[in-house]
Amino acid sequence: MDDRLIMYMHAGSGNHGCEAIVNSLCHMIKEQAALVSYRGGEDERYSLGELCAVIQERSFKGHKLAHLLYYAYRKLTGDGESFIRYRYHEVFRGGRAPLAVSIGGDNYCYESMLSDLRLANAAFNHTGTRTVLAGCSIEPSLMADGGILSDLSGYHTIIARESITYRALREAFEGKGAGRPVPVLCCYPDPAFTLSPRELPLPEGFAEGNTVGVNVSPMVQEKESQEGLALENYQELIQYIIDYTDMQVALIPHVVWPNNDDRRPLHQLHEIFKETGRVVEIGDGTCQELKGYIGRCRFFVGARTHATIAAYSSLVPTLVVGYSVKARGIARDLFGTWENYVVPVQGLEKPEDLTQGFLWLMAHEGEIRQHLEKIMPDYQKKALLTGKEVDRLWEEFSRQ
Prior knowledge:
- There is one protein chain.
- The chain is of the alpha/beta class.
- Helix content is about 45%, strand content about 15%.
- It is built from 17 helices and 15 strands.
- The protein has helices at about 15-30, 40-45, 65-75, 80-85, 90, 110-125, 145-150, 165-175, 220-225, 230-245, 265-275, 285-295, 305-315, 325-335, 355-365, 365-385, 385-400; strands spanning about 5-10, 35, 55, 100-105, 130-135, 155-160, 185, 210-215, 250, 255, 260, 280, 300, 320, 340-345.
- The strands form three sheets. The chain has a seven-stranded parallel sheet with strand order 3-2-1-4-5-6-7, with helices on both faces. The chain has a six-stranded parallel sheet with strand order 12-9-8-13-14-15, with helices on both faces.
- α6 links the parallel β4 and β5 (about 130-135).
- α10 (about 230-245) crosses α11 and α10 (about 230-245) crosses α15 (about 355-365).
- The chain starts with a strand and ends with a helix.
């Protein structure tokens, strides 16, 4: 097996949140990592190619015979990990990797990813590689699933990025986890809080310090209680900003995958308001470039977690359109409560709900900015502890 520090379960940098986690972690750690990526070409095209060795996963797409052979082998032997060994072929050749870091994020919140997470963790463990789940958010209700808890117990260390997940993990392993191996549990902020911005020239229509950054995603649209209500809320919000303030609006994407592209709903909004001259579309860029735009906003209203992390860490008062534990947990750790800072998309009932949340944000702009200025330096120092923990584990296990 590859004897480098391995990072895995990375879906590709077209999701700039995934890119931001890896980018930030690479800047934290001493060892140069090898990143196993589902979309390696994206990582080379954006910011990661210069920071780590990018290894493209092997795919069965276009290799029908290999797929059939591995499927038959799996059916005959029950060796589900064989698919992981095929995909991560370059990593599993030869000896044993000392340490493999699963780029956590909210991977465990998606049922479609649970099988691959479990199989990859087991495949590494069976070769003697120690695994770390880093920067993760996990819905507390999932801890009641014995299969998920068994998988989580296979990690040497789990680093939760917010306290709701951390407390749920502690309770699970102190209670129902009795008798299982217990991973080392840590709670450090998401590594992307330390991401360095890159400031490109601002486009016409973006007023630095007096622009509301707006991000919406197809994912929150899927979670809405009534079809079309999420986008209707965004439309009402932008109309309010145009009618009652002198601020501009910048529509900023953070995921640009073909099947999950923020630019589609953002472009719909731009088409509605383009004649006003008050709304500008920001194009795709690296995670650092997008943070450079977000950091020059006066307010930010966003659905993508790492777009909002870019805003928080740039001291921009932020309203999150959330749908899971990650939004609530991060806001609560920053402010002591998530109320007024997170609008759950499932809770949107009227077109004006998001605007009402934004009005609260505007009314408390000064105190929110002062609070972020006060806490952010220490919060970012704490985020660096993820890198120090990975370095410590690498030094320990690479000597064995």
